[in-house]
């Protein structure tokens, strides 16, 4: 039996954690059912072995060689059946574990991709990491334990029937004792559930704080905030340790009960069986069988308590996964998408009055930089607004179409781990000449030349080996390599020096010649190279023209640009 992750994980049932677990089990009905049947066969074969041993002992006391041989062969057959069923059950259980765990991973990754920028607004990064590291294991364990749990339950019923047929008092002890043992164990499950939930919440919060500290370490050191954040992390870590100790305390008590109660039950049944044998109410073979059954019951009882524990853990984990899967992105495709003409068209924002004409290099200067960001978010459909392309509202277009036609490159974008070539050209569509031209336009050639393996050098997480200005230039080069129909740039030169900014300003227009480009900036170096400049104040267009015209005729623009120049 080989396992390979499903190409299409399917549509999960997210109405509740229980329904999600049942949906996972139903995705592999054949293997899941086979695992349960094999688990029942495996446990029942073990349950019948004490009876065969007892009959063999009775045959031995009667010196009945034929019966002894027959029961010996039965015992051999049960052993072979138990071994074969156990091996196959284990293979099915491993398959079910992997299928449930990796299907959950696929669904989690899919919803993260679907949510996009919405994800960090709704869920902490540590929460997503914890799902991928611990929750999938608990979910897989909940699906895996069903085979052993069901087999153990059927085995206990089988043993109870055999014992009742041999001795009603001893049978009643077993029939009534097992539910009592399970009820005692069940009393510990609920507090364990609560402690696990608290530990899981603390773990996700601590992971999120660790990620925040690592990502902002350079800034923290610059402002002297590292000791403060370290102290907070240390305190939160100790709180997590306390939650872990409380979970371990309940778990250790549960483990002790799993050993103590079945052991005490074994002593009780053996003592009663010995008394019945001395009174002649049961035979020696039945006494051996009763002892064997009692010793055997320790295993299915432990399996049932383990099943309760794993199902509880799986339910807690599934609840968190379901909570993530229920999230919906802020932007969704319209029920009846509109069609869009081919080729570049006018991109307009009705709320601000910004109109980006096709095929031109346009600059947008705003008195407040945040106003420019808001306008670009509308033009790139990162919020639903009255923005249009070719006169068609962006909200009426499929989101994939908008992303394909309009690319927004801002300073919140990240560099990812991997070869620099793949970072600049993630779709592997551009040749070396195109990448080289983009690097030159972004004045980033020197960055690549300084790397030991050039474009084949590996970028560390978030490009931490690069300075802020280098990261900005590489992000600009990546946007130019993509060569979108419409490119919206937000402050692409804010982190570079004046000489580098002048080179970028000189080359950017040529690199985007004949393509629609909007640059949000207050840099005179960039504004002077733009074909058309739009000036925005209080979120509205108040003037348009060339850089020189606006300098001469618009004092507010002149004041804004002067601040940018300073």
UniProtKB/TrEMBL annotation:
Kindly give the Pfam families that the UniProt entry links to this protein: ABC_membrane, ABC_tran
**Domain ABC transporter intervals:** 248-563
GO MF term list: ABC-type oligopeptide transporter activity; ATP binding; ATP hydrolysis activity
The Gene Ontology CC terms held by the record are: plasma membrane
Compartment(s): Cell membrane
Q: Which residues form the ABC transmembrane type-1 domain?
A: 34-313
Q: How does it sit in the membrane?
A: Multi-pass membrane protein
UniProt entry keywords in alphabetical sequence: Membrane, Transmembrane, Transmembrane helix
Listed transmembrane segments: 30-48, 68-88, 170-189, 259-278
The positions making up the signal sequence are: none
Q: What is this protein called?
A: Multidrug ABC transporter permease
Q: Which organism is it from?
A: Micromonospora deserti
